Amino acid sequence: MTRNKAIALAVKIVFWVLIIAFFWWAFTSEAFAKIYESPGTFFNLLSQHLTMVGISAGLAIVIAVPLGIFITRPKFRKSEWLLVNIANLGQTIPSIAILALAMGFLGIGIRAAIVALFIYSLLPILQNTIAGLDSVDPAAKDAAKGMGLTPAQILFKIELPSASYSILAGIRTAVVLNIGTAALAYLIGGGGLGVWIFTGIQLFDPQFLISGAVPVTLLAILVDYMFRGLQFAVVPKGLRLARQAAIKQA
């Protein structure tokens, strides 16, 4: 076992020991009492949280991935600087400011929260789509042209499969960021698990705080692992092996 692998294994062991210790403390001290006492309220808040994240991320995927494809076409390459910088505003402006701006235009409620989260998640998906498509081997595209494939066939049979790992990584980043940022939606009346988090802060009640914050954390970790599994399942085996070889050489 190499030194880097040993360090990574040690970090994982420490991480899981801390997680187990935290949950042992939480269950023995009744820190999750609010979930036991009000399961209906908890699942309602969880549903609101997932709705905000799901709709905003879905809209971002539907817009950012085609936009990334559009930008990487030779005819429209000049528009990359403008469009990427526009999307970059969503990450440059603090998330709380985006929520406030959305509330100013759309009023209080879940609709404003969804729009704000959508804006916040555009850049990671767009950047990774562009990076993934740009990393496709030009020789592979030239070979496909030589075989008589149309530009559309090259896109769907060569470029997108080759860029799939990078695109999914961008989607994973956007969704995980949205899960955490969605907790702030409470501040503009969007609901979600942030209701319990901020109630716990306002009342100095650790039961409310932990019953809201821990599910958000676990949800982010779970979704991250799910997308890692999806990347493994979707990305062609040859690309995975090439990526692993590149990592080992580095």
TrEMBL record:
The keyword Lipoprotein does not apply. The keyword Transcription does not apply. It is found in: Cell membrane. Residues 46-227 form the ABC transmembrane type-1 domain. InterPro entries: ABC_transp_perm/SBD, MetI-like, MetI-like_sf. Keywords: Amino-acid transport, Membrane, Transmembrane, Transmembrane helix, Transport. Belongs to the binding-protein-dependent transport system permease family. CysTW subfamily. This is ABC transporter permease.
